[in-house]
């Protein structure tokens, strides 16, 4: 830390320490799911990796599902940072989603975690229900605003409703993941997405080289 | 049974009786999931509804997941029968899938069962993994043959690969279900499907009145 950094009060220092510990736990959970699989990575094993007690972990994440949702939230931040999610809606956002899908093909463990937890969390009251409700609304919102901006620019095919196209795009990403996880040789995560985008857009989906 | 029906040997009579019992169990399971929800309908409760012992039920369906897969197989048969799945691939098959999606909107219990089990069954060795592998290959196959027939008739947009479009269509149906179950007011199961089909086809998706 730079010597000129402001001195923190003890309560904000406690907050910062808590945040750091949360981050450590989420990082350990990401690694544990990648190494041990969805069913192998128990809270106890994750606590051991962080070097805290099971009770200590429970203080931060009362359930396994709450920790899983935190892992997915962190992944959303990483996905947005990698390659750079454009600040304003438009073609760049849709291309970014294609890049996320391509990245997912090399990261089956997190794709599996997402697909399993999304299906479990459909029930209100599930610890990850809030995460998925927000996540879906947010990505549908980005995508809908992007389709609307393209329509405005005359780059969306006539008759394509931006909100309907947004729900379709996100559904396509998610549904492909389940087919791909079930039968990896038969389906890929990118081709059908690119097909959909190319059919609704009047501009090339792929980046000019 | 007509008096002229052939007399069965005792082993085929036993087989028929076993089939009937299986059918009874699957029917009771369908009703139990609709009444009690995914987590409420235990094997014990289902056995009670059929009037057999828990051990008797286990003889037919060794795990809860195997019974759930049988419920979904039966639903596939019902979906194909309702409205009539056309014998030959083409526009009729795609319209049939739209009808299935519309029917699903009034049957959230079975949609929930399908979405949850699909995500759980991605692992080889899960009792429903075989069902989902077959199911996906079969519906993708029907859909791909239908897009190919439309391409042959000059009714598919240029550049649309039938197999890619098929994977996309099934992914779209499945992904929409999870969004719809998570946040029912925000998404519908039919609109995005119709949008996709209308974008890739050069003929109207909706039946002429």
From TrEMBL, chains A, B:
Annotated HTH tetR-type domain residues: 19-79
What PROSITE patterns does the record tag this protein with?
Answer: HTH_TETR_2 (PS50977)
Which keywords has UniProt assigned to this entry?
DNA-binding, Repressor, Transcription, Transcription regulation
What is the originating organism of this protein?
A: Nonomuraea helvata
Name the UniProt record assigns to this protein: TetR/AcrR family transcriptional regulator
Pfam families from the xrefs? TetR_C_6 (PF13977), TetR_N (PF00440)
- Where DNA binds (residue ranges)? 42-61
